[in-house]
Every structure is written in C-alpha cells, then in structure tokens.
Design brief:
β10, α10 and β11 form a beta-alpha-beta unit. The two termini are about 20 Å apart. The chain has a six-stranded parallel sheet with strand order 8-7-6-9-10-11, sandwiched between helices. Strands 1-2-12 form a three-stranded parallel sheet, with helices on one face. α5 packs across α11 and α9 packs across α12. By secondary structure, it is an alpha/beta fold. It has 13 helices and twelve strands. The chain folds into two domains: about 180 residues, Rossmann fold (3-Layer(aba) Sandwich), CATH 3.40.50; about 160 residues, Glycogen Phosphorylase B (Rossmann fold).
Length: about 350
C-alpha cells in the first residue's frame, strides 16, 4: 500500500486493492477501490482462496494489469484476466521451515510442488523479484525491484536511551522468545521494548503475558508509515531473525527501515544484514539467539551517546543514498506500464467504499 500502490497512484493510475482489510482492522484510503476478503490463516485457507478468486475476477474485469504478491494466488487466478505479474518477495521453499503448523507429509511434498508452480508461473506470467538472489530459482532473467523504504531527507530526531523497538511480523523464527527475555532483563535498567506488528498465534500468549508483567508494549498491526514514525528516537531497533534459508538470501527490510529513521541496528549475522551494518557502521551484529550479547550491546549504546549518535547518523546517510524507495519506484512503475501497454497520468479513480465478496 505505502510503496507500490502509492507509486502507481502518483503516476496517475487507478488501483483496485484486494486485501483482508476487516481482519487487519484497516480502513482503506479513498483514492483506491478496495475489495475486502477474508484472511487465510494456518491450514484454514479454502474460504479465503475462493474469495480471492472471486475478487480477482471482479476487480480485474476492466483492469490493464493484475499484480499478485502471494504464490498461493497463482492457483486462484481467474481464467479471464489481464496480463499478470507475480511479485516474488520471498524464498517460498525456504520459508516452509518457519511454518510450524504444516504437517510432516506436507513439508516433504511442498518443495517439489512449489518449484513446479514457480516454473509454470515463469512461463505464463511476468515476474518482478525483490532480491537479486531469487534469479537462481528461475530459468530466465527478471527485473529486480528491491523492497526499499521511504527515507526522510531531514535527519530524524536523536536516538534516546530508554526504549528499544521491533517493527514487523512477530514469530518464533523472528526472535519472539529472545525479545521477551531481553525485555525481562532490561526492565531493571529502565529500558522498555516496543513491539510493533502482528504476531503468529503460537507466540501471542507469551506476548500478552509479558505485556501484563509490564515488560513491553505490544501494539499489534500498525500501518507502515505510522509504525516507522514510532521507531524514531529509540535507543536501538532489533532484528533477531533466525538462520533459516528464507532469510539467508534476503536483506531484512526492518534493518533498512531502522537506518532510515536514524535508529542504531542490532541484528543477527544473516549475510546481507551483517555486511550492511558492518560496512556502514550503523549498528551491532550479535550471534543467533544470544540474549546476553544483545543485552551488552544495548547497555553499551545507552552508556555511549556519542557512539549511538554516530551509528544513527551513518545509518540515515547510507539509507538515503541506497534505499530511498522513490528511486526504485520509477523502475517498478515503468515495468508495469510496459507490460500493461499503458502510460501514466490517467484520470484518478473515484473514491469507493470497501466492498465484501
């Protein structure tokens, strides 16, 4: 919504957005046509898939292009549809390790089925990749449009010393247990943890218990632009991703977002995150699952305001030079216009209320 759709609207295009607005408690903006569908959760996905197919049939009737982000939607595409683009933004097979709700037979069968589905999608549709490393999964070459972020051109407010933040989906594989334990250890030092984002069902009770204990504040889903403003002024931003295949080839978007907002980064040593943080001097790299190391890093940043300010300044400068979304947005819009055979500056769609399917 805040990057791709905004780029298309700014180029003058009309956009129909199909998403689970009610489930996420979101009111879509008046500049888009919104189609509200149920969200697929765990193994209960059939109803959501049927609704998605109907919504794509309805929303794509007069569209010049259909853009999808979820590999499952490749199996729900309507027969009559405009040119279709799949935005590949994760290693789908690698991500299976983090889906603990999948039964063992599914874990054994799905990798082969997913690779077949990817090969079929490459033959039938246009592809955009969020990471250069994803090229290895496909026979041909496809344009790469990275998941960059909006970077304030003015330096953000200075980093404080009483609050750390995490922005993004919260799960076991993303360090939920480590963050709760870290919050417990930091409480006597007067440092509080803000968790900003939705959480997997399996970790929600732990987060609620920690919030009742006064260890942290869990805000749940917050729209991206508001979530990033909430990070400003924090002592550090956390990225505790585990060493899983899906994460090894990707640049964690939260690392770029913390840098953009002038917040020092504390990250696990995933290759791209480690290289970025060490090259730019924008944070600290800690071992996987090492709460002790995270604790030391945070207390060191608290006790060294000059070092903290230097990391914040270096991070913001590097993000402005390398990760400002409007630069990548031009390529994104140009690719879609080419495939749809249309150009920008068309009339803006009239405001419409969200409709259920």
């Amino acid at each position: 919504m805040h990057r791709q759709i905004r780029a298309l609207l700014d180029a003058g295009h009309q956009v129909t957005y199909i998403a689970p607005f009610t489930h996420c408690n979101i009111t879509p903006g008046p500049e888009i046509r919104a189609i509200d569908i149920p969200r697929a959760v765990g193994l209960h996905r059939r109803r959501a898939m049927r609704a998605a197919r109907a919504a794509m049939r309805r929303g794509g009737k007069d569209a010049d292009l259909l853009l999808i982000h979820d590999i499952e939607l490749l199996m729900a595409l309507p027969r009559r549809r405009p040119p279709t683009v799949w935005d590949v933004h994760e290693d789908t097979v690698g991500a299976l390790e983090a889906k603990t709700y999948l039964p063992k037979p599914a874990r054994l069968m799905l990798p082969m089925l997913i690779r077949r589905l990817e090969a079929r999608a490459e033959r039938r549709h246009h592809l955009i990749l969020a990471e250069e490393a994803y090229q290895d999964r496909f026979a041909g070459s496809h344009p790469v449009v990275p998941n960059h972020t909006y970077v304030p051109h003015k330096p953000p407010p200075p980093s404080g010393d009483g609050r750390i933040v995490y922005v993004g989906h919260i799960s076991a594989a993303r360090g939920a247990a480590e963050m709760v334990e870290l919050a417990r250890r930091l409480k006597p030092h007067g440092i509080r943890l803000d968790l900003i984002g939705p959480a997997d069902r399996g970790v929600r009770p732990m987060l609620r218990d920690a919030q009742r204990e006064g260890l942290l504040d869990w805000f749940g889903y917050v729209p991206n632009q508001h979530a990033l403003r909430m990070t400003e002024g924090a002592l550090a931003g956390l990225s505790f991703l585990s060493d899983l295949p899906n994460y090894r080839v990707s640049m964690p978007s939260k690392v770029m977002e913390y840098m953009a907002r002038g917040v020092p980064v504390i990250t696990t040593p995933l290759p791209k995150a480690r290289t970025l943080v060490e090259e730019t001097g924008s944070g600290v790299v800690i071992p996987f699952g090492d709460v002790d190391a995270a604790m030391r890093a945070i207390l060191d940043l608290r006790d060294n305001p000059i070092r903290r300010a230097t990391m914040a300044q270096r991070g913001h400068t590097a993000a402005l030079e390398r990760f400002d979304w409007p630069v990548a947005a031009r390529d994104f819009v140009a690719h879609l216009e080419e495939w749809a055979a249309v150009r920008g500056r068309v009339s803006t769609a009239a405001a419409q209320r969200a409709v259920h399917v």
